[in-house]
Each structure stands twice: as C-alpha cells, then as structure tokens.
Amino acid sequence: MSSSIDSIEHRGLLEGDSEESRHDEKSLIRSFTRSYTNSRTQKVILLILSVSIVFNVLLTTLYLRTPSQPSQSEALTPYAHLKHVREEPYVIVTPYSSDNETLQDQLWYNINVDSAVVALSDDWADQHNLRKAQRFPWDQSKGIYILHGFHNLHCLKIVYISMSEYRRGLPQTRSWHHISHCLDALRRQIICDADDTPRATDRRVEVVSGLHQHRQCRSWEQLEEFAKRHTACYKRPENPDETSWSKVDRFKHCPPDSGYVVTDNYVSTEELLEGLPEESLQDHM
Ligand SMILES: *[C@@H]1O[C@H](CO)[C@@H](O)[C@H](O)[C@H]1NC(C)=O
Fold it and tell me: What are the helix and strand counts (H, E) for the chain?
C-alpha cells in the first residue's frame, strides 16, 4: 500500500463508503424523492421557486443593462445625507470661464465659503465617528468643523485670484505657500475620487471630450442647507476695516434664529481658534 499523503487522504474520503452504506443512501434518496413528488404542496413550492428564479434573472438583466442610471439603493453621503439628484452635461465653457473677464472675476471673487465653518455637537460627532474638535465659543458642547467641499472651492478661488493677479501684473495678495497647499489639496482630491468616467473623443479642433454625455451630481444647495443648519456664525474679514477682528469676532455673525448668545467677554477654554481658513482680503478689484 502506498504511504503517500495523497492516498491517505483518499482513503479518508472513501471511508464508510461500503456497499452497505451506499445501499442505505440509495433507498433513502428513493423514499425522499417519492414523498417529495407525491406532495401537491411541494409541487406548488417548486413552481414558486421556478417563477422566482425567472424573475431574478430578469431583474438582474435589467439592472445590468442600465449602468448609468443612479441606483435606487445608492448610499447617502455619511454626514449631510446627500445623493445624486441631478444630471448635467459635460461642457466647454460656463460663465466662470467666460470671455467677459469682468463677469468671470465677479463670479470667482463672489464665491463665499464662510458657511464651510460649522458647529457640530460632540454627540453628533461621536455618532458619526468624527473626532472632537476645538470648542465653539457659544456652545461648549460643540466643536468647530470645516466642510471639505467648501475647503476645495476656497482653494480653487485663491488659485484663480493669484493667476488673475499675475496676468494683470498686480502684486500677489496670497502667499505661494497657501497657493501650493491648495493645488496639492485639489490634486489629492482628484486622486482620491479616481473618477473612471470614459469621456468620448471626437474629431474636432477644440480639446474637449464627453460632449453629449452627462454626469450625475449631488446638490450643492443641499450641502449649503446642511451647513446653514449647523452654522458656526462664521464670517471672514473682507474689508480693510475688518482686519482688526480677533478670531472670536469671526464667530459673532449668528443669524437671528440661531439660539446662540454671543457675548463680548468670551474667554476661551483652550488655545483659541487656530487652523481656520484664512483668505479673503480683497483690497482691490
Ligand atoms: C460683462 O459682464 C458684466 C458683469 O456681468 C456686464 O455688466 C457687462 O455688460 C458684460 N459685458 C459685455 C460686453 O457683455
């Protein structure tokens, strides 16, 4: 007898497979099959199962044939619970790249990201696996957070400002450090998103692709609503006379219905309010 591992394993598998036990199995299967097919109930169940299988195949086929439709079971974003709610085409120009430079400047300079800064309760943060943040002055049970999408938009804005200053031969109002940080943040976002949409090319002079194709988008307005519901009453200094604002002063712009009581003698419980988005001194335009 071979003593190889192979044959030992096979012996193990065949163990108990004697004529006797094989006979027992056969009669068991026969009696099972008989009682199975004789039962009307079982036949109905068989029918229902068959219909179910046919439906499953049909549904799967339908699902696989419509890959560009937003899925009904699309997961909501984890914090503001946004989903894809609108469709937009890929386009060559929008007013933000208009030939009318006055209009272009107006649009870019008017991007306001103050609502990026929100106050979220520690309980809420806990439920969403967020770490605790520095204290919000008017409610010590809340931390200050910056919504990432607004941060990216802010970054794009200062890159635009820097380039338009360069173009016009004006002195740079934003530091290179800040601008390269912003470019890097946008680079990271692109890498992180890893957008796999194939945009069809055409034989045409303009460098553009994806014409007549559409993408599904979330609603920026809904994100803004979320930000407003959690307002941190934040406003950046925009005019030269506002540059003397302290950091706390930036949080004193509560809407009337916020319920926060703003005081002038607030004393911080910690090293106060670092890491806030800078920007937005428009001393010219
Ligand atoms: C350019 O845009 C500005 C600002 O919207 C507008 O007032 C002006 O009429 C536009 N100029 C032209 C030539 O369309």
Answer: 8, 5
Q: Which protein residue has the closest C-alpha to ligand 1 atom 4?
A: 103
Which is the closest atom of ligand 1 to the Cα of 100? 1
- Ligand 1 within 6 A of CB of 106: yes
Q: What is the Cα–Cα distance from 274 to 33, expressed in whole angstroms? A: 76
Q: Is the minimum distance from the CB of 102 to ligand 1 under 6 angstroms?
A: yes
Distance CA 153, CA 159 (A): 10
| Closest protein CA for atom 6 of ligand 1 | 103
Give yes or no for residue 66 CB within 6 A of ligand 1: no
57 is written with which tokens?
A: 């195949």
Determine the pLDDT at residue 31.
Answer: 53
Q: Shortest CA distance to 211 belongs to which of 90, 88, 94?
A: 90
pLDDT score at 69: 53
How many Å from the N-terminal Cα to the C-terminal Cα in the chain? 96
Question: What separation in Å is there between the alpha carbon of 282 and the centre of ligand 1?
Answer: 21
Instruction: Tell me the longest C-alpha to C-alpha distance in the chain.
Output: 100
The structure tokens 């696989």 sit at: 64
Q: What is the mean pLDDT of each run of 10 residues along the chain (285 residues)?
A: 40 42 53 56 76 70 53 85 93 91 95 93 97 94 95 94 95 92 95 93 74 90 96 84 78 92 81 57 35
Report yes or no on whether pTM surpasses 0.85: no
